[in-house]
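Predict the 3D structure for this chain.
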Amino acid sequence: MEQAPRYKSYDNTVAGYYIVNFGCRAAQADGAAIERQLADRGLARVAAVEEAEVIVLNTCTVTAAADQDARAAIRRVRREQPGAKILVTGCYAQRAPGEIAALDGVTWVVGNSHKHQIGSIVAGGDQPDFLPLQDFNARLNDSSFRGTIYASDIFAHTELRAAPVFDGIERTRPNLKIQDGCDNRCSFCVIPFVRGQSRSLPAESILREVEALEHAGYREIVISGINLGRWGRDFDNPELFPNLLRTILERSSIAKLRLSSIEPMDWTDDLIELVASSPRVAKHAHVPLQSGSDAILRKMHRKYRPWHYADKIEKIRKAMPSAAIGADVMVGFPGETEDLFRESLEFIQSLPFTYLHVFTYSPRPGTPAAAMPSQVRIQVAHARNRIMREAAAAKNVAFRQSFIGRTLPAITLARTSDAGTEALTDNYLKVQLNSDVEPNRWIQVHVDALTAPGLSGEVVSR
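Done. Predicted structure below.
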């Protein structure tokens, strides 16, 4: 069998690559798949930008700030390693490839449509399909474009390719992406236009991935997706996400599964009961909210009302009294008056959240919300963000305090010093241990005290 082309450095030694991931857990899983592609093409992972000959920036575009972060990162790596080839991929690369290609130092721009071919692009072997997006097709020969662009219509993709299992990249808690894309059309969100329609990985492919990760020694896997609860709905014979979880539990012995974000309408009674009853599923529910105001949820085109959401959260808390419960919350959406913001804040304060991810609304090109009247002044939105974060911080402190003096299961993450290790509990609490424990081990931790970022404790059994 003919060997795939392999990238070599200028002196014919093994070339080094460095990858920077931005954004959600699905993007982190994409980054792991990219790492596998590069390793398969003969590149070696290096520890710093300065050592790399190929630098990959796997971008996010959920907010304008995410775009700015990506552009700043491109400029930074260009300064730190001017001789490296820079490849920009991910959601920003899919949304605005021409914008990125015009930046100094960018060698390749690879949209989500072509990220499964990054290994071929870097190695210069078989050329991947090159189907430029119409909005910049006429400008590809313009002198302002420095990088080569690989991107096409993301909605033409109807299947999800399995991300290759990786070994030796993540020391603990790898992400396994089993679903991509989204069929919802929230008025503020650009993600469906850069990720495409909802696509699911077949169950047998998922089981092979879980088996390989387990064989590699991992003890917790984070199951992720863009709209994870919709897994299986796109099959000719639709399948349900809770049934997939049961199959994974029955056909593997992985110590722990943790679920990433799942929309409120997909937290069915069946899923809640399964997560609550299985000791091998982490007691952790991330349930996107966006706003606690009914008027704002309607303008966002969200598919639930505040009372529907509250019912789900109350069921989760009743079934799992010690669970971490988190949400995404947006402030400053067009038309959000002071009264509507206060309505949202009061709703959130009434629910048993343990943490929040708070975002300031950012107009995304082409979305309905970007053209809505009554845009909120950025100074007002930032002030509301601060108020919401303070409310979230108070809830988080109260939740952490409630576990002082208790013993919890936790997985060790990484050594923070010669005599200290960080661990993450089953219910998503960071604990600093005053002892050296090898990463990737499930242990029992006695929580001693509250600290500024989390908790401190000691190992009681390994």
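Residues 411 and 441 are 5 Å apart (CA to CA).
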